[in-house]
Specification:
The complex is a heterodimer of chains A (337) and B (183). Chain A is α+β, with helices and mostly antiparallel strands and 337 residues long. Chain A folds into three domains: 52 residues; 90 residues, 2-Layer Sandwich (Phosphorylase Kinase, domain 1); 180 residues, Orthogonal Bundle (Transferase(Phosphotransferase), domain 1), CATH 1.10.510. Chain A has 13 helices and eleven strands. In chain A, 37% of the residues are buried. By secondary structure, chain B is mostly helical. Chain B has one domain. The chains are: A alpha+beta (337), B mainly alpha (183).
């Protein structure tokens, strides 16, 4: 192995070591293309890494997974979700009642990087307060435990809602308005969400919105962001995230625009199948075209002008003020009557 | 060694003084080997020897009654010597299959099959040498962790990188080593 090749192998390995098998697969398809031996090297390392017991399991249906009866003062009643870095349980607490309990798995508690990342999420969750964010009840990081107890968001994800009962124009704008307000608040604290997508947005039966999962959010001025790891979700990731370039508020503006586009048109501007195709479209020269909306409607016409500004491929010239996005969404929603 | 001389040399070596380092290394090596031999004679055959415990004992003996300082740097220096001692021993043991001292080592973060201890150690040493050809820093980080028992923080300090960089180095290096040694 020579140095250049190792640099490549190592970089890909580091990106993927905490990712799910499906994400790894898609990412490898994209970056390795037909370099079979590069892919082999990375895959062997990933396998060896998993076998060292540092990797949590990724089950297809988390609700069927076994779970502990009790963690600290919480009685566990089910599994809500599982990711590379944490498991979220449905739990009961004597005082807080029904909570979502985010827990760093035991095999990661002793790992400095995982612990630090988890702590950072807990700290920034506590810093930002907004009605569309789940309230944090308790952060517990002692001994073998690292957990965050927070309000449980009731409802279904926007991802499911888009399939079953897509929001109309007014509701889509209201959802975007709320998300923009939360993100503007986060940005004012120097926090970037980095992973905005329909599965991180929850709607209850009254269409009240909650933004969940600040799991990979980062402080804009943190050193780690400078070289930005690729950790987002392909279709919603900005060009700068694909290139592992520095990110900022405009990164969330991009992702919110993709989500809004999807609510309006039923599909993201990029989806054509494989991750590689998606990446090529996001990274390509061609500017993102305006959504195919109804030009006779003034609100839709405004959106056809505004969305391309949010989807400027150049992160330096893209709209970076979430406050402006918020205000625009608010005004457009009002005009919907 | 004259009382206090060791501390001085260690300090100079830490400051980048190559002469001091060259004077110190053979002494550390000697001390560690003597300790290992004593230990093996004392213990029953098949007993597990802890590399880091040996290094700690050597440190106390060399350091004498002086204030403990530069401990992390001593560990760093010793990890290299420890690796050489263990590998030499494994080689000579392999040459003389009829017996000799059986030495089983416990290294931090690495648990080879107890029966294949010697072979696995040689295999590790070989893979580690290959790793150092294209990523010297990660190979050194592994040496410090496995043979010296340094913490991530100490490794970072020793290599002049952050604790999280040390963690990333080691994670990738371990995965590569394991992928090489498995097949």
């Amino acid at each position: 192995m020579d140095k250049d090749r190792w640099t490549k192998v190592r970089e890909i390995f580091t990106h993927l070591s905490d990712q799910s098998p499906s994400f790894r697969e898609q990412y490898l398809d994209m970056v390795c293309e037909d370099q079979r031996d590069l892919r082999d090297d990375v895959e062997k390392m990933l396998q060896a890494n998993d076998e060292m017991g540092s990797h949590p399991t990724f089950a297809a249906d988390v609700s069927l997974e076994p779970y502990p009866e009790k963690i600290a003062d919480y009685r566990i009643t089910g599994v809500l979700g599982r990711g590379g870095m944490s498991t979220v349980y449905a739990a009961q607490h004597q005082i807080f009642g029904e909570v979502a309990l985010k827990v760093l798995p035991a095999n990661l508690v002793s790992r400095p990087v995982a612990r630090e990342r988890f702590k950072q999420e807990a700290m920034l969750l506590r810093k930002i307060s907004h009605v569309a964010l789940c309230q944090v009840f308790e952060i517990h990081m002692e001994g073998d435990h690292a957990l965050i107890a927070m309000q449980r968001a009731e409802g279904i994800t926007l991802e499911k809602r888009l399939q079953s009962d897509p929001p109309n124009l007014k509701l889509a704008l209201q959802i975007a308005e709320t998300i923009a307000a939360v993100l503007a608040e986060a940005h004012s604290h120097g926090v970037i969400h980095r992973d905005l997508k329909p599965s991180n947005i929850i709607l209850d039966e009254y269409n009240r919105v909650k933004l969940i999962d600040f799991g990979i959010a980062k402080y804009a001025d943190a050193k780690l962001t400078a070289t930005g790891e690729i950790m987002g979700s392909p279709a919603y990731m900005s060009p700068e995230q694909w290139r592992a370039e520095p990110i900022g508020p405009q990164t969330d503006v991009w992702s919110l625009a993709v989500v809004l586009y999807e609510m309006l048109c039923g599909d993201t501007p990029f989806t054509t199948g494989s991750v590689r195709d998606t990446a090529q479209q996001i990274l390509g020269e061609t500017p993102v075209s305006a959504p195919p909306l109804n030009t006779t409607d003034p609100v839709q016409r405004d959106l056809m002008e505004f969305l391309p500004i949010m989807l400027d491929k150049n992160s330096r010239t893209r709209l970076a003020s979430m406050d402006t996005v918020h205000e625009t969404m608010r005004l457009l929603a009002l005009q919907c009557g | 060694m004259v009382e206090g001389q060791f501390t001085q040399l260690l300090h100079a070596a830490k400051g980048g003084d190559a002469t001091a380092r060259n004077q110190l290394l053979p002494q550390v090596y000697e001390e560690l080997r003597t300790l290992a031999r004593h230990q093996m004679r004392r213990e029953n055959a098949g007993h597990t020897l802890q590399a880091t415990a040996l290094i700690n004992e050597a440190y106390i003996r060399l350091q004498g009654a002086n204030e403990p300082n530069d401990r992390a740097h001593f560990l760093a220096l010793s990890s290299q010597a420890m690796r050489r001692i263990l590998v030499d021993h494994a080689r000579s043991k392999n040459r003389d299959k009829r017996g000799g001292d059986l030495i089983r080592v416990t290294l931090v973060d690495w648990q080879p099959d107890a029966n294949a201890s010697e072979d696995a150690l040689l295999e590790l040493d070989d893979a580690l040498s290959r790793l150092s050809e294209f990523d010297a820093r990660s190979a050194q980080a592994i040496e410090l962790l496995f043979f010296g028992g340094l913490t991530y923080e100490e490794i970072g300090q020793e290599l002049g990188i952050s604790k999280s960089s040390a963690f990333d180095d080691i994670k990738a290096a371990k995965a590569w080593l394991a992928s090489q040694m498995a097949g």
